[in-house]
Amino acid sequence: MDISLFGRILIADATSEELKMALVENGRVAKTINAGRAMEHFFEALGKCTGGDFSGISAFVLCTGTGSVLGTRTASVSLSTIAQFTGAQIFQFNCMEVGALYLSGKIDGKFTLLTQSRKGYANILNYDGEIKLLKELTVDQIDSTAYPRRLVLRQRAKTDPSLAKFEMFELDALQMAQTLLKNPGLAAQCSQPPDAKPLTEREYVKWKAQAHI
Fold first, then answer.
1. Overall number of domains in the chain
2. Which one, of 60, 22, 73, lies nearest residue 189 by Cα?
């Protein structure tokens, strides 16, 4: 089962400092919202995007990584609670994978997409016709692992100095939704509520111990 089978779906990415949300109706993007942080703006954006009517939404599609665990948790709890009442299905996706597939239509040849991680680390995705590598590494390992063309998916207002020298890339709500509709396999059906999925096991275990959903 993939998201292309559902008539009305809501896509949300709360992993960055800018919340991105899109309402899709019959395979077309009907409305998009780019707002502030999920902790302050999630419910306001949700109301604006849906008009407060969740009854016709048959699937929620949530970004679960990489990025803000707290933002993801806010979105996960909210959408999973609604889904419990409406019977909507839940899907999850990775924003780096979606970003890479979007960029593959804009960039000729192979490239590397990076995001910030914990101090001294970065998340890396290498793309060469397909996703070749997706993991966390130390910033000192970037030069030996990344392809020559390097971009940073902006998730924070302040960029780590180790990544500031690379080209910055922002994926807005419309680009996110259109890429998922074009590549529905990027979103996988999951249990409720979906977990945040950083690429580092260390941070994931810490979060699971302190903040159960």
1. 2
2. 60
φ and ψ at 89, to 5 degrees?
A: -85, 155
Question: Could you tell me which residues come within 8 angstroms of residue 36 by beta carbon, excluding any fewer than 6 positions away?
Answer: 17, 18, 19
Measured between alpha carbons, how far is 114 from 159 in angstroms, rounded to an integer? 12
Closest of 49, 67, 68 to residue 9, by C-alpha: 49
- Phi, psi at 136, each rounded to 5°: -95, 145
Q: ∠ CA(147), CA(152), CA(158), 5° rounding?
A: 145
pLDDT at 212: 47
Residues in the chain with pLDDT values less than 70: 201-213
CATH number of the domain encompassing residue 134: 3.30.420
Q: Tell me, what amino acid is at 128?
A: D
Residue range of the domain that includes 131 = 96-169
pLDDT (0 to 100) of residue 202: 55
- Asked if 50 and 125 sit in the same domain, the reply is no
Q: Are residues 119 and 182 in the same domain?
A: no
Which amino acid type is present at position 63?
C
C-alpha 111/C-alpha 121 separation (Å) is 19
Predicted TM-score (pTM) of the model is 0.91
β-strands 59-65, 89-94: how paired? parallel
- Contacts for 47 with CB less than 8 Å, ≥ 6 apart: none
CATH of residue 30: 3.30.420.40
- 149 and 184, same domain (yes or no): no
Residues paired with 114 in a beta bridge:
124, 152
